Every structure is written in C-alpha cells, then in structure tokens.
Amino acid sequence: RVVFKRKELLDLFDLDGEKVLIEEKSPAQKKIGDGSMSPIIGAEYVVEIQEVGNKQNSNCHCLLCDKSLKMSEVRIHVVSANHRLKYLAAFFPTVRSKFNKVPSLKFWRPAAYTYLESVANSIQNRDGIGRILTVHTETYFKENLEKIKAYVEYT
After folding, report:
1. How many other C-beta atoms are found inside a 10 Å radius of the C-beta of residue 102?
2. CA 9 to CA 86: how far, in whole Å?
3. CA distance 32 to 17
4. Are 39 and 149 in contact (CB under 8 A)?
5. Do the beta carbons of residue 92 and residue 77 sit within 8 Å?
6. What is the largest CA-CA distance in the chain?
7. pLDDT tens-place string over residues 51-86
C-alpha cells in the first residue's frame, strides 16, 4: 500500500488545503467522543461541513451511507447498526455475511446486536477511531464531492 502525505493527496485530487482539513477539535470529532461508551467504526467517512465564521452551525455527511446528518445525530449515526453494517460490507465482507441470516434489523435478536458491538469493538481496538474530515462551506463540499470521497478513501 502506498502512503501519501496530506499535501500530496490534496494536490493529487486538486483540493484546496484551506477548505479541506482535519481539525483535532472539530465539533463533530468532539461529538463522537473516544469510543469508550460504544465502539466507533467508519468515522473517517463522516465529513463535517462548516460555514466560514459559523462553526456552531455545522452539518455533517456520511460518505459511506450517503446520509446528511445534523450535528446532534453524528454520534448516534456512527454507532448505529446500519452504519456499522455498511462499514463491514465495504471492508470485512466475510464478517458482514454472518449477519445475512436475518437481513432485516427489525427482526434481530439482542445477541445479533451484541455480536455486532463486539466486532466493532475489535475493529476499533485494532484501527482506532478515524478522524473526521472538515470541509469549509456546503458549496465547496457539493462541488468537490467526488474528489472528497476519493481523498477519504486514500487517507
């Protein structure tokens, strides 16, 4: 696997480093926490969209689930069964297939949720919690969505 530096990736995908960045203390990163209450996988697919000068009015978008989120929904989303299953389908298809026996979540028994939680915990312990990408302005996000998705895939 080839490892790129941040600047190289930004240049490769023709993205503006002033508008696409990882902020250690972004509101969304703070919202998801440290994973101690419930394991978090796939946080690196969440993009926080900040309007310049209005950090408090940020929204998010999960690239993995193609879902727009309010800031208050970010934590709930990254620990949801749907998000976790999409992550498993993308990166651990064999593990994901173990949940196919009962495909509809409304028919799952508690043991299935417990198993999914343990799988997520193992992944978090191995890989850590991904960093949320911050993009300045909704317009820039929409205009560069495909490039941003590619950037996230390489980071």
Report:
1. 11
2. 25
3. 24
4. no
5. no
6. 48
7. 877 766 789 999 999 999 999 999 999 999 999 999
Neighbours of 18 (CB within 10 A): 9
Contact (CB, 8 A) for 39 and 121: yes
Considering only CA atoms, give the Rg of the chain.
16
Return the number of other C-beta atoms located less than 10 Å from residue 110's C-beta. Answer: 7
Question: Is the CA virtual torsion 75, 66, 85, 92 positive or negative?
Answer: negative
Helix and strand numbers (H, E) in the chain are 8, 5
Q: Is it the case that residue 149 has pLDDT exceeding 90?
A: yes
**pTM of the full predicted structure?**
0.91
Beta strands 54-62 and 67-70 are antiparallel
Whether the Cβ atoms of residue 9 and residue 154 lie closer than 8 Å to each other: yes
Nearest CA among 31, 42, 27 for reference residue 128: 42
Residue 89's Cβ-count burial label (10 Å; 0-12, 13-18, 19+) is middle
Of 27, 135, 123, give the one whose Cα is nearest residue 74. 27
